[in-house]
Write a structure and sequence with these properties.
Blueprint lengths: L1 E5 L7 H10 L4 E7 L18 E6 L2 E7 L3 H12 L6 E7 L12 H11 L9 E5 L11
Parallel strand pairs: 1-2, 1-5, 2-4, 5-6
Antiparallel strand pairs: 3-4
Helix pairs in contact: 2-3
Length: 143
């Protein structure tokens, strides 16, 4: 199974590591996430600046790709440019902190999943999952 993971907290957020490790048992995981915190950007995409993608490491090992854009940009880059095959599943999260139901329309991680649905043909759409967890403390990033 081909799995694409993104988030809106950034490539070095604690939750995305846990998610990639857990889902790595179910299939081939590709991580593409923003280079910095990009919460509350909604369905925004980058149009005026070039998108920069760089390999990201965790504990000295290749972990995924860091992109200069929004979560929606990351999903589109993952599907159209980075992954060799279309994903069977797209997962966004695990989010740092809580979100209330009414701000789902501005959540970058939710809108990234909506972008995934719009980035492929009707014949090859795939399921997606949005994960939420309340993590109380943020560890410093470890490149």
């Amino acid at each position: 199974m081909e799995i694409l993971i993104t988030n809106d907290d950034g490539i070095y957020a604690e939750g995305i590591y846990a998610l990639a490790k857990a889902l790595g048992k179910a299939g081939n995981v590709t991580v593409v996430a923003p280079d910095t915190q990009r919460s509350a950007v909604g369905h925004a995409i980058t149009i005026a600046d070039p998108l920069r993608v760089t390999p990201a490491k965790h504990n000295g090992k290749f972990f995924g790709y860091s992109a200069s854009g929004t979560p929606a940009d990351c999903v589109k880059l993952g599907i159209k440019s980075i992954m060799k095959k279309s994903p069977d599943l797209v997962v966004s999260g695990i989010n740092l902190g809580g979100n209330l139901g009414y701000n789902i329309l501005t959540q970058g991680r939710f809108r990234a999943l909506r972008k995934a649905r719009c980035s492929v043909s009707l014949q090859s759409r795939f399921p997606w999952i949005l994960l939420q967890s309340r993590i109380s403390a943020r560890r410093p990033p470890s490149p």
